[in-house]
């Protein structure tokens, strides 16, 4: 099987004890496109991504990967779906005791690949994709933060996934290194024809890479649409969010004032 796959969540609810994090999220992540998910810290962006790979199970609602419903799949069958999804975690999470080469080979071995030459070929292919072929025999501790992100990215795509989830891929990087990551996300999206879902705080990065944008707040979708629709939204508070000027209280107001969450019809409060 190859080619991109779409993903979809329907009326997703997730609560941790008294903390209702996702409160009815319905979203589509179209195949082959880059969807950027934004929202204030703690609004549930990482929790949403974890539902997309089955690391968390919803209290209510559905998660679909192509035509497969995955929120209720047994762990064993979930493994087959996960094979198609690359995940770049918020913390790069490389294994400190393994070389770059062995870090990237890890998912291949985990999925039963044994031929050393094939493993080496695949590792070197993705290392070249992220522009770090010469680091194969270094240890992660010898690399910069930006380089470690790129290695983690290489590891996330080494199984040739049809979907890649990125959690804050540019956070903590200076603008030049962030731009390298933006270009890589665009390149991987093009070169591998994958569906990309990117969680970010970084508005520059968001507008640079997005085909579609989603704004979450208090466990709900406040706004979704194209970057142009986000820029042109008539809601002044959303505009201020996009300029990084809006407080959580004001965002709550946006939410109350918009019956329809799609940008085209968002009303001014
Ligand atoms: N496994 C868990 N157990 C209990 N609470 C959790 C768990 N995972 C997340 N939460 C809570 O869910 C809420 C949303 O967390 P999440 O990590 O999704 O936020 P986020 O939007 O990704 O924030 P940030 O932008 O800071 O990464 C937070 O209040 C967090 O404390
Ligand atoms: Mg997060």
Structural write-up:
There is one protein chain. The strands form two sheets. The chain has a six-stranded mixed sheet with strand order 6-7-8-3-9-10, sandwiched between helices. It has a domain at 1-84 and 211-269: Rossmann fold. The N and C termini lie far apart (48 Å). Helix content is 38%, strand content 22%. Strand 1 (7-16) and strand 2 form a beta hairpin. The chain has 269 residues and is an alpha/beta fold. Mean pLDDT is 87; it is low at 259-269. The structure holds adenosine-5'-triphosphate and magnesium ion. Residues 16, 19, 21, 39, 41-47, 90 line the site of adenosine-5'-triphosphate.
Task: Please give the CATH class of the domain at 1-84 and 211-269.
Answer: Alpha Beta
Bound molecules: adenosine-5'-triphosphate, magnesium ion
What kind of assembly state do the chains in view correspond to? single chain
CATH architecture of the domain at 1-84 and 211-269: 3-Layer(aba) Sandwich
Largest β sheet strand count, sense and barrel closure: 6 strands, mixed
Averaging pLDDT over every residue, what do you get? 87
